[in-house]
Automatic annotation (TrEMBL):
Protein name as annotated: Uncharacterized protein
Length: 96
């Protein structure tokens, strides 16, 4: 169980909120700005940033909250659960 599991699920839920009812209707991409502005995602990323700060030497944080969100987006992209478009992030269609 990863410490990022909650954040990953929040991100996937937010990206998945935009419906794609038909095969010809693509999902509405969610830009990074809307993901980082989401209060639940932002709070969880800041909580993880505080954990990283306490684990780091001399209390220096390795990354701010927005950078943790970006790292998780890239990790989800590498596992092919989401993909990036020129307009934002969308879920990968498992049927395709």
């Amino acid at each position: 169980m990863s410490k990022y599991e909650t954040l990953d699920q929040l991100i996937l839920d937010r990206i998945g909120e935009t419906p794609a009812p038909g095969l010809l209707t693509p999902a509405t991409p969610v830009p990074f700005l809307l993901l980082s502005a989401n209060s639940a995602i932002s709070a969880e990323s800041e909580r993880l940033a505080q954990i990283e700060k306490t684990e780091a030497r001399h209390g220096k944080s390795t990354a701010p909250g927005w950078r943790i969100i970006n790292r998780r987006l890239q990790a989800l992209r590498k596992t092919e659960r989401i993909r990036s478009t020129s307009r934002g992030w969308v879920l990968v269609d498992e049927a395709a």
